[in-house]
Amino acid sequence: MVAISALKIGDTVWSVTRQKSGNTTITRQVCHPVYIVAVADSHVIARWNGNMARRFSTSQVAKWRRTKPA
To answer: Half-sphere exposure (CA, 13 Å, Cβ side) for 32?
Structure first.
């Protein structure tokens, strides 16, 4: 879990979510890198999985992880 106050510009954290495997009911855990572009008091501007930078709120940032899970 990551707090906004602990983030700095240029940091890389990980977003971990569940995703369906193709056209089945089986799910798997996927990890995407999140690159921090800017940090404010109540939000973060970051690039997620190579997409354009966008704003992430405190509740979204709290779900990110500092290290990549195995």
So the answer is: 13
